[in-house]
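call fold(seq) -> tokens
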Amino acid sequence: MGTDSRLQSLFPRDKLPKLPYTVSYYILVAQHFFLLLSVSVESFDTVQCKTLDQKAMSVNQSLKFL
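ret:
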């Protein structure tokens, strides 16, 4: 039950009404992974970082239509 309250604070019901909290939790983990990946890649290739940012934005846009 404690994880449910933490997930509810991370994901208010009005933001992601159709997604279960476990799925939205994994989405959060994936977003953090992409963020860390883009930050580590940035030191090598900023163009690759920009493409990763665009991919993350497209993922966020597709989630809004769910």
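Residues 18 and 54 are 24 Å apart (CA to CA).
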